[in-house]
User: Which sequence fits this backbone?
């Protein structure tokens, strides 16, 4: 318990620690995964507490901060619980969770897009007043610019530029070629730079 | 070679990723040395990337782990309810189908013998295939 608590204190400032934990932390996590797999609820809870902020980080960037992102982050851990038996440890658990998170968010965003298309087809379009609200500061503007990207471009930006995964790993996590990652990154950055001209 | 603004932007992004080949790097460096506008664009990309890296981490609400456990528990019970609902639907459908075909829900109707008159039963026995005949 103490070990995990100390890890949690470190977590805030260093994302790389999440992706590439040191050997001791790696061993601790492996043992918690093993125990959770055997049905140890306490070990599973420690894993949830250790990874909840990084997972929420991804869902909040993908869906926008709020209850929906939190809901999706919880769903990620439910999926983890259901698939613990299949987790072979080829990637770190953090990477595995980020992969689940980003793909669940992509599915959700695409489902929303389909629903929106139906609504637009069935009736007159209702203006989205939230999207027209001017951002209050840089952080707000950045988040708004991120949310204006297409879901696929947003996923690439979140994994590569926010979470710091290499291009190759980002491509693997999303199941797309590296070249596609690079081109989506370029287009997304161009859009964001245009959107944030005032702040850059 | 004439390149448009978007293509130059693409090269700048590739440069940040370390994905430029030798020829592209040479081309970009030459253009950067000659164009203040391109240098500004490069600076903007670098600022954007730095800002994205420094975005604050969202903190989960209190009771996050408990809510995950509650979800797992309810998901575990959910399939039981789904199985029970499916069984109930099958039972009702079977009942309706039997009622529709025989006009009754008595035990004979479920067994499929309700609509059989005595003379029909005899005919059935006489005409049915008998391996010992």
Assistant:
């Amino acid at each position: 318990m103490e070990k995990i608590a100390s890890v949690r204190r470190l977590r805030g400032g260093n994302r790389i620690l999440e992706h590439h934990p040191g050997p001791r932390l790696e061993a601790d996590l492996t043992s918690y995964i093993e125990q959770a797999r055997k049905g140890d609820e306490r070990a599973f809870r420690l894993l949830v507490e250790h990874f909840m902020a990084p997972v929420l980080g991804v869902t909040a960037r993908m869906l926008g901060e709020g209850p929906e992102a939190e809901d999706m982050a919880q769903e990620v851990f439910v999926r983890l619980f259901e698939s613990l038996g299949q987790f072979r440890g080829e990637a770190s658990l953090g990477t595995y969770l980020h992969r689940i998170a980003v793909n669940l968010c992509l599915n959700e965003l695409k489902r929303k897009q389909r629903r929106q298309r139906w609504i637009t087809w069935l009736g007159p379009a209702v203006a989205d007043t939230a999207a027209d609200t001017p951002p209050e500061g840089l952080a707000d503007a950045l988040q708004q610019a991120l949310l204006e990207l297409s879901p696929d471009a947003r996923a690439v930006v979140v994994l590569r530029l926010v979470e710091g995964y290499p291009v190759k790993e980002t491509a693997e996590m999303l199941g797309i070629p590296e070249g596609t990652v690079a081109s989506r990154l370029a287009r997304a950055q161009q859009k964001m730079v245009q959107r944030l001209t005032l702040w850059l | 070679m004439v390149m448009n603004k978007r293509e130059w932007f693409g090269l700048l992004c590739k440069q940040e990723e370390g994905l430029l080949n030798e020829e592209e790097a040479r081309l970009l460096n030459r253009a950067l040395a000659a164009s203040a506008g391109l240098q500004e664009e490069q600076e903007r990309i670098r600022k954007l990337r730095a800002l994205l890296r420094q975005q604050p981490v969202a903190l989960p609400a209190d009771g996050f782990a408990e809510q995950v456990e509650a979800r797992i528990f309810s998901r575990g019970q959910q399939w039981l309810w789904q199985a029970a609902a499916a069984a109930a639907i099958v039972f009702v459908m079977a009942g309706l189908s039997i009622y529709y075909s025989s006009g009754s829900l008595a035990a004979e109707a479920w067994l499929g013998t309700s609509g059989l008159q005595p003379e029909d039963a005899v005919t059935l026995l006489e005409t049915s295939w008998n391996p010992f005949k």
About this structure: The longest helix of chain B spans residues 64-102. Chain B touches chain A through 31 residues (CB under 8 Å).
